[in-house]
């Protein structure tokens, strides 16, 4: 549990990142059918497990199975878990008014107390988490979009024009398929296959011209 600026894909990816960083990789994730988790062609119908959301694509890259909740009982369990949260009152009593302080309170005070009160001893010893080694989580747990480079050697992305800097590997990338990564803090990066072509700030300004 943590606070972020915006709810949805970014907060869900950040949640997975915290768990994987602290404990390791897990096998499956049970979620509701929110639009950031699943695409649902017909309201109230089955989710589309082929055309994935940005979050779903990130879970696929990690090999995590996503399981959609359909039953009313499943929804009830999550709502009951939410009802145990006493955060608004606790934060107010502690005089906390900004996100950084709230997240510090969560990590050092609230979460340990919550776990002491509601956790249960596992039936078997050991852990089902698997260490994740040699993987840059920033480039896995992010939104990724395919784009085609324009005739001006730039990429259009959500109203931004992303310039590709000079590259020793080729003279231009016109008509080439590239991949744009958007990270949790809103910054961007552009990739051609495994090679990072450039980094950009949230407004699309080129940050780093060194190629990797």
Task: Give the secondary structure arrangement, pairings included.
Elements: H1 9-23, E1 28-31, H2 54-62, E2 65-68, H3 72-83, H4 87-93, H5 99-118, E3 143-148, E4 154-157, E5 160-163, E6 177-182, E7 188-192, E8 195-200, E9 206-208
Parallel strand pairs: 1-2
Antiparallel strand pairs: 3-6, 4-5, 6-7, 7-8, 8-9
The main sheet orders its strands as 3-6-7-8-9
How many strand units? 9
Radius of gyration: 20 Å
**Mean pLDDT, rounded to whole units?**
87
Structural class: alpha+beta
The major β-sheet equals: 5 strands, antiparallel
Structural features, described:
By secondary structure, the protein is an alpha+beta fold. The protein folds into two domains: 9-118, no CATH class; 142-208, no CATH class. It has helices at residues 9-23, 54-62, 72-83, 87-93, 99-118, and strands at 28-31, 65-68, 143-148, 154-157, 160-163, 177-182, 188-192, 195-200, 206-208. The strands form three sheets. A five-stranded antiparallel beta sheet has the order 3-6-7-8-9. Strands 1-2 form a two-stranded parallel sheet. Strand 1 (28-31), helix 2 and strand 2 (65-68) form a beta-alpha-beta unit. The protein is globular and about 60 Å long. Mean pLDDT is 87; it is low at 1-6.
Give structural attributes.
five-stranded antiparallel beta sheet, two-stranded parallel sheet, 9 strands
Could you give a short description of this structure?
By secondary structure, the chain is an alpha+beta fold. It has 5 helices and 9 strands, in the order αβαβαααβββββββ.
